């Protein structure tokens, strides 16, 4: 590195940006008092700023002329570049505002089939209509693993996973109760469920690989009961297909249950007991809290909030 380059770094490291604001006012007003009023300084403070500027640029900046103060040749040269620099600094400091139509790139969302079916369609429709330059990729969420957010491999997680991590932010999109679904040919579909009848039924369980009891089974265990799990599958849509042609029943969040009942011709049944609602969260990393595109995308997710 040359000596002149080192000197420039030293000068920049000690530069007071407020001096550039004062310099612009002096160049525009060509008068110390008016320049001071323009930037909210006292006249003595602006005079001190002018003295510092004269030392910095090794130039008087303002000199006496026939009609008052006038700019030196060096000051005239500074005026244009200074305006550019101040504009650039303003753009750096001010959070950018993006028009959705100008957004581009790929957004990666990790989720499960419940959230994908019940929540994402309306969100994706909004994004595609308002920001056609954005590409969306939905990936399978493995268990409760939020580490892809930590590694910056994905943008969002939409899931019922309940974790509080210092590096992740989240918001609740949905709180939902549960219903039971049965095929029309299942005798249970024609009766009001009681706890005894519910426990006697054969159940299809959606096992998302968490290796722990879900909300329903935890509640039943606390009462000293357990249900008959005849089949375990990894997806809600697969479970609905199994129930459609067997005597099995499934217990699912209500919003998804209404959708599956309609698409698979199943009968929704009220549970004979009350369990706590399931919460669905939107997770993102704190690094993207103020990312303009992420801010807009989170507003799109807000449209599905209860």
> What's the shape?
rod-shaped
Number of strands: 12
Q: For the record, what is the CATH homologous superfamily label of the largest domain?
A: Periplasmic binding protein-like II
Can you give the helix content as a percent range? 40-55%
Major sheet: arrangement of strands = 4-3-5-12-6
> What is the overall pLDDT average?
87
Q: Work out the helix count.
A: 13
CATH class category label of the largest domain: Alpha Beta
* Low-pLDDT residue spans: 1-10
- Radius of gyration of CA atoms, rounded to a whole number: 32 Å
Question: Any guess at the CATH architecture of the largest domain?
Answer: 3-Layer(aba) Sandwich
How much strand?
15-25%
* CATH fold title of the largest domain: D-Maltodextrin-Binding Protein, domain 2
Distance N to C terminus: 60 Å
The arrangement of helices and strands along the chain is: HHHHEEHEHHEHEEEHEHEHEHEEH
What structural class do the secondary elements suggest?
A: alpha/beta
List the helices and strands and how they pair.
Elements: H1 3-13, H2 17-29, H3 32-39, H4 43-57, E1 62-65, E2 68-71, H5 73-93, E3 105-111, H6 113-118, H7 120-130, E4 134-140, H8 147-150, E5 156-159, E6 168-176, E7 178-182, H9 195-200, E8 202-206, H10 215-222, E9 228-233, H11 236-244, E10 249-253, H12 254-264, E11 267-269, E12 278-285, H13 292-302
Parallel strand pairs: 3-4, 3-5, 8-9
Antiparallel strand pairs: 1-2, 5-12, 6-12, 7-10, 7-11
Quick overview of this protein structure:
The protein is of the alpha/beta class and 306 residues long.
């Amino acid at each position: 590195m040359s000596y002149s380059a080192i000197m420039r770094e030293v000068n920049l490291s000690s530069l007071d940006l407020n001096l550039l604001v004062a310099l612009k006012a002096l160049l525009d007003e060509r008068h110390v008092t008016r320049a001071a009023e323009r930037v909210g300084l006292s006249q003595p403070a602006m005079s001190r700023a002018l003295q510092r500027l004269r030392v910095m640029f090794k130039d008087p900046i303002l000199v006496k002329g026939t009609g008052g103060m006038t700019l030196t040749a060096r000051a005239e040269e500074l005026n244009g570049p200074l305006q550019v620099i101040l504009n650039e600094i303003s753009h750096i400091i001010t959070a950018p505002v993006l028009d959705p139509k100008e957004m581009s790139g790929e957004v990666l969302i990790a989720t499960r089939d419940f959230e994908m079916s019940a929540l994402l369609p309306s969100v994706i429709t909004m994004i595609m209509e308002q920001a056609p330059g954005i590409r969306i990729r939905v990936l399978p969420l493995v268990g409760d693993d939020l580490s892809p957010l930590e590694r910056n491999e994905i943008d969002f997680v939409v899931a019922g996973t309940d974790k509080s991590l210092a590096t992740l932010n989240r918001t609740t999109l949905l709180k939902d109760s549960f219903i039971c679904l049965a095929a029309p040919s299942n005798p249970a579909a024609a009766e009001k469920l009681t706890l005894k009848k519910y426990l006697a039924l054969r159940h299809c369980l959606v096992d998302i690989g968490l290796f722990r009891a879900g909300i329903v089974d935890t509640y039943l265990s606390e009462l000293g009961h357990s249900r008959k799990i005849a089949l375990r599958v990894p997806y809600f849509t697969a479970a609905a297909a199994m129930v459609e042609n067997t005597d099995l029943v499934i217990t699912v969040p209500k919003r998804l249950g209404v959708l599956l009942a309609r698409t698979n011709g199943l009968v929704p049944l009220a549970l004979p007991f009350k369990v706590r609602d399931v919460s669905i969260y939107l997770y993102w990393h704190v690094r993207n809290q103020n990312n303009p595109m992420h801010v807009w995308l989170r507003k799109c997710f807000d449209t599905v909030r209860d």
